[in-house]
Amino acid sequence: MSTITNHMPTEELQALDAAHHMHPFTCNGELAQKGARVITRADGVTLTDSEGNQILDAMAGLWCVNIGYGRDELADVAARQMRELPYYNTFFQTTHRPAIELAQKIAELAPGDLNNVFFAGSGSEANDTNLRMVRHYWALKGKPSKSIIISRKNAYHGSTVASGSLGGMSAMHEQGGMPIPDIHHINQPNWWAEGGDTSPEAFGLAKAQELEKAILELGEDRVAAFIAEPVQGAGGVIVPPDSYWPEIQRICDKYEILLIADEVICGFGRTGEWFGSQTVNIRPDIMTIAKGLSSGYSPIGGSIVSDEVASVIATGEFNHGYTYSGHPVAAAVALENLRILEEEDVLGHVQNVAAPYLKEQWESLLDHPLVGEAKIVGMMGSIALTPNKETRAAFAADAGTVGYICRERCFANNLVMRHVGDRMIISPPLVIKLEEIDLLIARARTSLDECYARLKEDGLLQSA
Ligand code: PXG
Q: Of the candidates 65, 64, 187, which has an alpha carbon nearest to the alpha carbon of residue 123?
């Protein structure tokens, strides 16, 4: 139980952590000097650390705790399921009630003919599944040369070899021999950073048309699928111009390219609908899910697959799966999470209460001297920090220097607001209350003020 933290001083925990725990996406040498922040408990939207600080978690963990922390119902369901059937696999012609019920529920929630679920333990695994499934689909259709998957620079699709290759994070590709062959990256629709003098709408259209250009260059007979997040999350909450997605859908239809919507962040209410695909009005053939599926209470992900693709895959054995595909405890927890989302009308709260208010408050930050752009879709938002709003300039300092300073101020002010380069991002629990949004904005403002003062002092307000 968590009592360990009540009996050990923070420094001891930090020393043990530094001695034995390798953190993901972290310079562990540097962290060992500094000591990791120890989180001990959480309730609603608030984390408590080992020093007793109460921190507003405007990232919902890692974009996942959609229903907020501290819901006993999920703990009770997990305990019950562990006693009844803690584990059984779904490989050798067996199944169990939690996997059946969850697949059926997901099929009911998902739009169109997305009626089939292949379970995984995470979003990364689900995207590995997708890569293999779409290639296998085309092979079964007699077109094995259709194996290239087109993705986007600055996309995040996970951290396994296949999902990291699908992603467009150059810092990841520099390590460990990625990307694997037959993955092609086009540019992202990031107007603020890359749009120059073009209007957002013209820029969005031009970026979508890069897909068509790539298909024509690579050959229609070579391209299996296009994968993208409806709204790029880890890339910095990059909201595409309205012109972008309709054009992408047109191109996928025209060239018979499967569309994979990575809904790992956007899914389960984050954008205000059940799925981001509904918010941007696209018809994917496959959706990747994880995170909000269980609100992070248990590790589970999956692929929601169209009837067409699933029926072709069903004609033979698909030699793929995970020990924990459809894990009964994870599935039971996810089901309880979906029950809460539905019965407590969390999407209604987002649509009618939280998102409109958050949008108004978030956009009010535009009056701050550092904030050049404020974007928000549902409950995921970003601001671009800039030394010059008119020219949309980047800072002269290395990308991320200023964002990091701002993030450190946020942490000092008991607010988890992340930075991606010099964009600050939020993705709070969907159940956040209006007074908590006020607190979020107040702390963000204080942190921006402190960041600004520091940049002035250090001469960092220079444009690149
Ligand atoms: N797709 C998307 C769109 C994601 O955001 C994954 C796939 C992979 O899911 P798993 O469950 O394998 O982590 C993600 C995960 C960040 C950050 O820095 C974001 C994620 C993971 C780790 C860090 O914002 N998203």
A: 64
